[in-house]
Design goal:
- The complex is a heterodimer.
- Chain A is mostly helical.
- Chain A contains five helices and three strands.
- Chain A has a three-stranded antiparallel beta sheet with strand order 2-1-3.
- Chain B is mainly alpha-helical.
- Chain B contains eight helices and no strands.
- The longest helix of chain B has 17 residues.
- The chains are: A mainly alpha, B mainly alpha.
- Chains A and B meet through helix 4 and helix 5 of A and helix 6 of B.
């Protein structure tokens, strides 16, 4: 009986930690949501909207709550947030070419963030081999809509990874 | 005629007056242990180019031109140095994480390649800060190697 209780407790713990790791949290979902509106603005060649999303993203990154993460993850996440904030700030005040340069580096940061925080949605990591010797980004949709070229080459790229 | 004279006098007084407003000087005789040149193995030609073209606004030590003590030029310089150091400070290079170093190195390449840096207002006076085509290639090769080694 004691053994059963123990294993039930262990199971419960496992389920809880699994859910915790996979579902992300409100703050990281907010960051993702702003990242996706930024990506959509770049797909639409809309520098003004991209800049606005950049400003929102800066605020979302600032609001991120590190407290529930382990010491190691905290350090990594703090680094990611700092780097991503810098890119978002640049995106908020730049012309579209420069926004896209920073979006590339931002995408790497956000991808690394998701690897730690998890997310409730299925994401697709997409890849365009042409932009700057190959560049990746995240999308909520399987269909490729290229944020680096916009209307210039809307469908360049492929899904290289599914994140669940 | 009188008005012109009055205006000229006011301008002169203002010009003399602003000379007394102090500016912050960006100078340090110490090269900190975190300096880009100290933590990386930088070839001599690259060192010299970075020093001449970048360090005036992107480090803790500016080689000031003669007009740095005359306002409003001094304000203009102070502003640029502040902004430059906020973006990238070679003196504090090693205090950055690898992630941020990589992103800075990438930006350095982009800025030099596109000709956005060094600023035109800077190269106007510092002719030797201008990058020749060969220097761009050489610099980017070095920076790319460094980035890939991180």
């Amino acid at each position: 009986m004691k053994k059963l209780k123990m294993s039930m407790a262990a199971m419960l713990l496992l389920v809880v930690s699994f859910a915790n790791a996979q579902s992300g949290d409100v703050k990281s979902e907010a960051i993702l949501s702003d990242y996706f509106s930024l990506k959509d603005a770049l797909v639409g060649d809309d520098a003004k909207k991209a800049a606005q999303s950049g400003t929102k993203l800066v605020a979302a990154l600032k609001a991120f709550d590190l407290s529930k993460y382990s010491k190691e993850d905290k350090k990594e996440l703090a680094d990611i947030i700092e780097a991503a904030t810098e890119h978002a700030e640049h995106i908020a005040k730049s012309a579209i070419d420069h926004q896209r340069e920073h979006f590339k580096m931002l995408s790497k940061d956000i991808t690394d963030m998701v690897a730690i925080t998890g997310t409730k949605n299925t994401l697709y990591e997409q890849f365009c081999p042409m932009y700057d010797k190959g560049s990746a980004w995240l999308s909520t949709s399987k269909e490729v809509r290229n944020p680096y070229y916009g209307s210039g080459m809307l469908k360049c790229g492929k899904v290289q990874k599914t994140i669940q | 005629m009188r008005i012109v004279k009055t205006i000229a006098i006011i301008l002169l007084v203002a010009f003399v007056g602003i000379q007394f407003i102090p500016t912050e000087r960006n100078q340090s005789s110490i090269v900190p242990a975190t300096d880009f040149m100290r933590v990386n193995n930088v070839p001599e030609t690259i060192q010299k180019k970075l020093q001449v073209s970048c360090y005036d606004c992107h480090s803790n030590n500016t080689q000031y031109p003669w007009y740095n003590k005359i306002q409003p030029a001094a304000w203009f310089l102070e502003d640029h140095i502040k902004e430059g150091k906020a973006e990238l400070n070679f003196s504090e290079w090693d205090s950055l994480s690898n992630r941020r170093k990589k992103s800075k190195l990438r930006s350095i390449i982009k800025q030099i390649e596109s000709g956005e840096m060094p600023l035109h207002s800077y190269t106007l006076i510092h002719k030797d800060a201008i990058f020749t085509k060969e220097e761009v290639v050489e610099m980017n090769k070095f920076i790319t190697q460094l980035k890939d080694s991180l």
